[in-house]
Amino acid sequence: MKDLMAAVSGLFGKRYSARQKERFARYMENRARERGIKWAEDTQRLGFGVCRNLYLGDLKRAKLLLAIPYDTAARIWWPGIRYYPVHKGKNILQDTLAKGLDILLAVALIAAYYLLIFRTPSASAAEETWKLAGLLLCVLAAGKFLFGWVNGNNYARNSASIVIALTCLDRFPAGQVAVALLDHSCCGFQGYQQLYRRLERKGLRKNLLVLDCVTSGEELHLHGLGELPELTGVQNHQLTVPECKGSVLELFPGGQILTGGQEAGGETVILDTRCGRDRQIRLDKMERTVEIIRQLVQLRGGAVEKSDFGSKEEKSK
């Protein structure tokens, strides 16, 4: 698990641009084929780009489908920004606030440079050239604030969740779990909607478990409609239909969301994502989450016994 975490969070830790996502997809494909794991890509047009979901394992046979957003978000420079896994409205409000502040900063940067430096008389042609170059740099910097800086540290959101899902796929017997890595889902729902349409076309009604920021903080929280299983070390949040509006559970009402974070104001809150502080590796919590998923598979009729619970490498030692 440690080596896989180093690859996913390090070598392929930035999954923001189309090129970065392509590199990650090829790594996932090669890894799946080396292990004889069923692999599929689902690519659909989305505006001027594409939404590319990656599926590993047998979606038809799996007792539990693990869904994880694999794309990473732009960096937010402003402190105090929180992420709410089941509260779309608050996320939109905070993202709008952060983007508004970015726009103000970009405008202020260009205006200050233009008024205080660029408009002052130049003593020579060389000085005028340097002032033009400085203005260009200010415009480029302002553009980065407007269109987003790539966030380099995405351990909790959601590199660790990807590693947890792949570890389950490696360790559990075939047909127990499948994994859906979803594009445009870190801050949106396009990947979830694409997954929903694929399952609808194939006539599949799967038990869905979303892993979102699982390693953030010390706690684990399980969210869902209806009765939730009692699992050691997991806090349950039985939600109502209105509370699920705008969340993944509105699209998959029979699904569940497993997150890290902490409870604040009656709901789960994730701190320290989309910033440089999201760089903690919590292998113990990741192993604990794999065990929780094993229990959830068993509750759904899966055959994952303790004797099966270990990677091929571990069993060979």
Report on this model:
This protein is an alpha/beta fold and 317 residues long. The chain has two domains: 2-75 and 152-305, Aminopeptidase; 88-147. Helices cover 43% and strands 17% of the residues. It has nine helices and ten strands. The chain has helices at 2-11, 18-34, 88-118, 125-147, 155-171, 190-201, 248-251, 283-299, 312-316, and strands at residues 39-46, 49-56, 64-69, 177-182, 208-212, 221-225, 235-239, 256-259, 262-264, 267-269. Strands 1-2-4-3-5-8-6-7 form an eight-stranded mixed β-sheet, sandwiched between helices. It has a two-stranded antiparallel ribbon with strand order 9-10. Strand 9 and strand 10 (267-269) form a beta hairpin. The longest helix has 31 residues, at 88-118. The protein starts with a helix and ends with a helix. Mean pLDDT is 90; it is low at 311-317.
Please provide a brief summary of the model.
This protein is an alpha/beta fold and 317 residues long.
Distance between the termini: 15 Å
| CATH homologous superfamily identity of the largest domain | Zn peptidases
> What's the CATH architecture name of the largest domain?
3-Layer(aba) Sandwich
Taken together, the total number of domains comes to: 2
Tell me, briefly, the overall form. Answer: elongated
Biggest beta sheet attributes? 8 strands, mixed
Strand order in the largest sheet: 1-2-4-3-5-8-6-7
Beta-strand residue percentage: 15-25%
Tell me the helix content.
40-55%
Number of helices: 9
What is the total tally of β strands?
10
Name of the CATH class of the largest domain = Alpha Beta
Radius of gyration: 22 Å
Q: Unreliable stretches, pLDDT < 50, 5 or more residues?
A: 311-317
N-to-C SSE string, H for helix and E for strand: HHEEEHHHEHEEEHEEEHH
Mean pLDDT across every amino acid position: 90
Q: What is the fold named in CATH at topology level of the largest domain?
A: Aminopeptidase
Derived from helix and strand composition plus strand pairing, the structural class reads alpha/beta
Query: Oligomerization state of this entry?
Result: single chain
